[in-house]
Amino acid sequence: MGNSALKAHLETAQKTGVFQLTGKGLTEFPEDLQKLTSNLRTIDLSNNKIELLPPLIGKFSFLKSLVLNNNKLTALPEDLCKLKKLETLHLNGNHLRQLPAAFGQLSALKTLSLSGNQLRTVPTQLCGLRHLDVVDLSKNQIQNVPDTVGELQAIELNLNQNQISQISGQISHCPRLKVLRLEENCLELSMLPQSILSDSQISLLAVEGNLFEIKKLRELEGYDKYMERFTATKKKFA
Predict the structure, then answer these.
(1) What is residue 201's three-state secondary structure?
(2) What gap in Å lies between CA 142 and CA 223, rounded to an integer?
């Protein structure tokens, strides 16, 4: 992509607050964007070949949405955690193994999508985020869900297509969790905490494609309580 094309994109972005440059084979974050640190609300650089985010990402103090799906990111800089207005972060289809230590400082974050990375556990940093609504951790290499998950504030947690064989019963303490997706994992029925059914806010539990037949779920104690929540929610959205 020539400089003139980039220049045109920058001029548009200055007016609209949106910089979108997808599928252009970019190998690095465009340095020229730093001229727009106070203008940009949205940056979308999906479907490129970006391997690193520079520290200057932390200077976009008005950024609300950052979309970097299908790049080659292996790590995120700590500076990303300075984005106090960031509400949406999409990083699907990268090579991330962990999140920065200060990730919990992204205090405005509502939607976090990390599908198709190389995470091995549910990052504990997520538990500090008070406004988180949706967390997508599907298609990673997560094997267990730790006790810290009980502090997660999300409404929906997607853990489909991982390698989960163990889940902490603390998940039933999540104060806002309504939707829990665990399809295509390695769960035995005995490893599914009964408290999810009998004693949680969860009104949609998706567990198809594990190591048990779905109809066996109905035999568990607490299933009727879960069905009450499920039905009540369905009525609300019908």
Answers:
(1) coil
(2) 26
Segment 9-40, tens digit of pLDDT: 899 999 999 999 999 999 999 999 999 999 99
| Angle, CA of 42, 50 and 157, to the nearest 5° | 60
Q: What is the pLDDT of residues 194-228, one digit of tens each?
A: 999 999 999 999 999 999 999 999 999 999 999 99
Q: How far apart are the first and last CA of the chain?
A: 48
Residue 235 is which amino acid?
K
DSSP label at residue 1 = -
Helices (H), the chain: 3-16, 195-198, 214-217, 223-237
If you average pLDDT over residues 160-179, what whole number do you get?
97
Which residues does residue 206 pair with via DSSP β-bridges, in sequence order? 181
In the chain, what are the domains? 1-182 (3.80.10.10)
Q: State which amino acid sits at residue 21.
A: L
The tokens describing 93, both together, are 């289809």
